[in-house]
Write a structure and sequence with these properties.
alpha+beta, Jelly Rolls, 9-stranded mixed β-sheet, 4-stranded antiparallel β-sheet, 10 helices, 36% helix
Length: 333
């Protein structure tokens, strides 16, 4: 894939009020998404708040003990809201779980969906307020992007935006830890089976592959998958994000640009618009990965009664019930 298939657009063009610049943005976002399922938008104007988010997430993942994080783990929600440890999520179709921890939250005081759980103010006093502020900024930008997509596909401008009002959109803090951290967690699972989040045999296989560089890795940071939601917004992702538009075994890096947002289509929006949701993954660093990686994706979802497929009548809550049963993989012993 030529990187030109993933176009870089200027978000300020859409906000400019200029008919010419807005049309340029609308045509560009449609072309890029149709070609690759991805687009990069610069000048998103969230950098200052995101800096504060990244300070707080590092405190959460690297200063809190595993037990303190596990106090926010709620298996009954199948990964929605709260903390999920290594072993908690496996990409659909993959055998081994992703090498990541994550913390997920949604709209605050939303009585229609799962309730957010936060670290105590004594542990992290600025954590919840910072995340709530960033969620609002991400949701606003998602609405603009959905308006542009709707205009591109010939829908009424606000239709896709309206589909997400009171939807179960969530923001996730992904922590892809160093090899040393992963091995520490796997060994804890092996030595304390009662506390393990995956079967001990699986943990042993993953540990062996990480310790022997001659073996093919059993797990990567995020196995190949298509996003299931409407749309994903990912600010300044680091090394490792790759896309395979034709799912043909060919992988290309997503271009990196400062103060940019990588945006991609999910399967729900593919059903709604015909634009493609494409395979992507996050690979392990080359060699012995000693540096952690953080990402903060915003997953935009429609409301639970949104009709995703006019032909079959499939609605969002039916789709989600099927999806969560496949994706969430903590099994215990």
């Amino acid at each position: 894939m030529d990187h030109s298939q993933v176009l870089v657009l200027d978000f300020e063009d859409y906000l400019s009020g200029s008919f010419r610049l807005q049309n340029k943005f609308i045509e560009g976002i449609g072309q890029s998404l149709r070609q690759s399922g991805f687009v990069v938008c610069k000048n998103m104007q969230i950098g200052q708040v995101m800096q504060r988010v990244r300070i707080q997430e590092k405190l959460f993942f690297e200063r809190l003990s595993l037990d303190e994080k596990l106090s926010l783990f709620r298996p009954e929600t199948k990964g929605e809201r709260g903390f999920v440890p290594i072993g908690g999520e496996t990409a659909i179709g993959e055998k081994y779980p992703d090498l990541k921890e994550y913390f997920e939250f949604g709209r605050e005081q939303d009585l229609q969906h799962e309730v957010n759980v936060w670290p105590t103010k004594e542990l992290l006093p600025d954590f919840a307020p910072t995340m709530i502020e960033m969620y609002a900024m991400q949701e606003q930008r998602m609405h603009y992007i959905l308006q542009a997509i709707g205009q591109y596909v010939g829908m009424e401008k606000d239709m896709l935006k309206s589909d997400t009002i009171l939807g179960n959109s969530v923001m996730r803090l992904n922590f892809y830890p160093s090899q040393e951290y992963v091995l520490q967690v796997l060994r804890q699972y092996i030595e304390q089976p009662a506390k393990a989040q995956i079967k001990v045999e699986l943990a042993q296989q993953m540990e062996a592959a990480l310790c022997d560089t001659g073996l093919f890795p059993r797990s990567i940071r995020a196995g190949k998958h298509k996003d299931s939601n409407f749309i994903t917004l990912l600010y300044e992702p680091g090394e490792g994000l790759q896309v395979s538009p034709h799912d043909d075994g060919t992988w290309e890096d997503i271009p990196y640009l400062k103060d940019s947002m990588v945006i991609n289509i999910g399967e729900k929006l593919e059903l709604k618009t015909g634009l493609p949701a494409t395979m992507h993954r996050v690979i392990n660093p080359s060699g012995n990965f000693s540096v952690s990686r953080y990402t903060e994706p915003f997953f935009g979802h429609p409301h639970r009664n949104c009709i995703l497929d006019e032909k079959s009548g499939l609605v969002d809550h039916q789709y989600m019930n099927l999806l969560l049963a496949k994706r969430y993989t903590v099994v215990g012993n």
